[in-house]
TrEMBL record:
GO terms for molecular function: NAD binding; UDP-glucose 6-dehydrogenase activity. Keywords: NAD, Oxidoreductase. Pathway: Nucleotide-sugar biosynthesis; UDP-alpha-D-glucuronate biosynthesis; UDP-alpha-D-glucuronate from UDP-alpha-D-glucose: step 1/1. NAD(+) binds at residues 12-17, 37, 42, 92-96, 133-134, 168, 279-282, 349. It comes from Cyclocybe aegerita. It catalyses: UDP-alpha-D-glucose + 2 NAD(+) + H2O = UDP-alpha-D-glucuronate + 2 NADH + 3 H(+). This is UDP-glucose 6-dehydrogenase. GO terms for biological process: glycosaminoglycan biosynthetic process. The lineage of its organism: Eukaryota, Fungi, Dikarya, Basidiomycota, Agaricomycotina. NCBIfam families: NDP-sugDHase. The active site is at C279. Its EC number is 1.1.1.22. Residues 335-451 form the UDP-glucose/GDP-mannose dehydrogenase C-terminal domain.
Amino acid sequence: APVKVTKICCIGAGYVGGPTCAVIALKCPHITVTIVDLNKARIDAWNSPDFSLPIYEPGLVDVVRQARGRNLFFSTDVDKGIEEADLIFVSVNTPTKKSGVGAGFAADLNYVELATRRIATVARSSKIVVEKSTVPCRTAESMRTILEANSKPNCRFDILSNPEFLAEGTAISDLLSPDRVLIGSLQSPEGIDACESLKEVYANWVPQERILTVGLWSSELSKLAANAMLAQRISSVNALSAICEATGANIDEVANAIGYDSRIGPKFLRASVGFGGSCFQKDILNLVYLSESLHLPEVAAYWRQVVEMNEYQKRRFSKRVVDTLFNTITGKRIAVLGFAFKADTGDTRESAAITLIKDFQSEKAFVNVYDPQVESEQIWMDLQEASPLMPLETIKKQVSICSSALEACKNAEAVVIATEWKEFKDIDWEAVYAGMNKPAFVFDGRLLVDAERLRKIGFRVTTIGRPSAVA
Ligand code: UDX
Ligand code: UDX
Ligand code: ADP
């Protein structure tokens, strides 16, 4: 019979584990949820008395405020968390490998393996182990092998795959009313029981018909597939944006017309300077690697093109900036508004802004950056990582971090909108214009601002997916 879950442990207090398990705690007051992490600074931040949490996510503070200390706990005592739990989420990071076999494509599973081995070593009673991190197909199988090879007598491990589909910036609402919850298990009686136990946890707030139960491999592949298809839509619309710029069609109008087809649907068709985030590129590269290792080179090439189109879109945008500024930006000041990979998050992983700024740096421009959420430290770290051979001092001579959009735009030749923060729509554009060198240019990489209104103020506006106005 299925075990009734009363104690959950989540290994990894990051963007996925933190919000997910906080919401589980909120919705299941009868379950004790402990989130553990090796990173003490992170745990301290989750426990901070003034709720200055380590990640910014709208609504998260309210959830943590309600549940923390009641049935939600954050701790660095990983072993104790494992020992006490009936069900363990493994929600550790799975970055793309930087070296070794599959470097640049395959996921680095070292963190998953270490966490799994820790479970095997420490557990003294049976556990349901849930793979939450996005991982390549067959990881559950490896986890199972490790656990079974190391388990003690009377101690069984059942593995589930339960990928998380939340998007950053809307994590809490995504978790509170998910499109679906996906649970993969072995189709053995034990596997089905374990699946039932986890299903019961979600059933506390998710309607039954939205909880899908499938085989382990389908679950793992579905996560990669969902992200690959979402990213593919953006690359498709971005490829069309290049045609629009060259022909005089308008990508807004095209996307809108396409989206009315109920088979296509209106969402996720917003042309941009390129997708970012920790998932899309990583998961597609995983899929490419998987396809290649299965000897399916045509399939690999198909998915790889989605990432290549994204790289092209970023390059194309930087080039358009340079071309428009009379073919040189050497010594010119460019204000980059937004550094996060999308609005409503402080996360910068794979953000298009990083590539744009690097391009502007190599053209010897000066760059002023402003983002309402990203910490300066993070910006310096990302720019350093993008140019590993350049001393930070040199980078700092070219790039300045500003504390407001207005300040960033002062004395600049051009404003580049890299992230769709709502506040950029509402800045005092008249004041921005007054402070800039003339002619003053705006490059909207996010279809954010009202180009006509800005033109009336005097700006020369270039918008992604629209031809450059013959000014
Ligand atoms: C994504 C998936 O949406 C989520 O289901 C999965 O669990 C994790 O990966 P996330 O990366 O947090 O979530 O954000 P998402 O909203 O998907 O945006 C990803 C990138 O695509 C951002 O850079 C965003 O700006 C860009 N994007 C999104 C577009 O350029 N155009 C769009 O129409 C939508
Ligand atoms: C298509 C468009 O749907 C229509 O809007 C346009 O005006 C003309 O082109 P059509 O070619 O008549 O219409 O048929 P459609 O139903 O789109 O199918 C096209 C092909 O795709 C068929 O061979 C169909 O079997 C195949 N298909 C469709 C799939 O293989 N899988 C699917 O999920 C859907
Ligand atoms: P994600 O976006 O997938 O949530 P993050 O990098 O934000 O990824 O979070 C993953 C967290 O997992 C990090 O805080 C990291 O310290 C933690 N972690 C990694 N390995 C272990 C481990 N073996 N035990 C405990 N925590 C771990």
